[in-house]
Amino acid sequence: MSNVQCLLCNKRHWALMCPELPSNKMRVKTPDLEEKRDVTLSNHCAAEEVLLQALQVNINARGKTRRVRALFDSGSQRSYLLTKIAHEMNLKPIEMKNIIHSVFGGSTLQKQDHRVYEITLQNVNRGFSFDIQVLDQPIICGKIPRINKGIWEKELKGKNITLTDHGRGCPDIELLIGADFCGHLFSGNIWTLECGLVAYETKLGWLIMGKVPGLKQEDTSAHLGTSLLIKKNSSVADLWKMETLGIMDPVETKSKEEMKKNAVGGSTL
Length: 269
Prior knowledge:
This is Histone H3.3. 16% of the residues lie in helices and 30% in strands. It is built from 6 helices and 14 strands. Strand 12 and strand 13 form a beta hairpin. A 6-stranded mixed β-barrel has the order 4-5-10-6-9-8. A 4-stranded antiparallel sheet has the order 3-13-12-11, with no helix packed on it.
């Protein structure tokens, strides 16, 4: 046994017993982690050809009110508030949660501690309010463009649809309303505009989404929408490592596959 060395990990055990073998990995169970795992499937393209469901809302907590830019995201199991906003409003957490995030592409991140806050959502006219719980997050997502002037304005006006998130630029998303609450906020009214955009009414205001007509995509790279995909202390180089993205060098992949075959077919006890 002293001379045994695994072909896969170079440790002192038989290759058939190596935990790196796929067949052995399937036997490992982590039920305690599964229960705390959240899924975030969101992704968006950096090009301004597609609009996501953003709007302006008021948040109220501890007697303070603030207008924020919010994003409806049914691909996220939880709702999130920028940590900066929570600090500026002097919010007090009601509890702490330790969560493992499962993200777009099937990857998982390390456990992350989140403060949980209770806030009240209000539409800009303050005619509706709804209480939700949010987790704090330093950065929610990348640049998400607002709707600008275009041929859709006349049609929206004719249908008496008023948008709260419009103009130039890409202000930060400060609140993400996930699947835990967004289903309670849709009114059911939907309009498909002649230009192809789709307007959804919520109890907090109207959302608009879809491909913007007449704009060509200039950036074909897709960027994952939520910051849950980004570890706070990760460098740009770490985030874009090919291994992290699931892209392996063909030679390296072939070598590992051959080693596994050899371990299965060539090792004897």
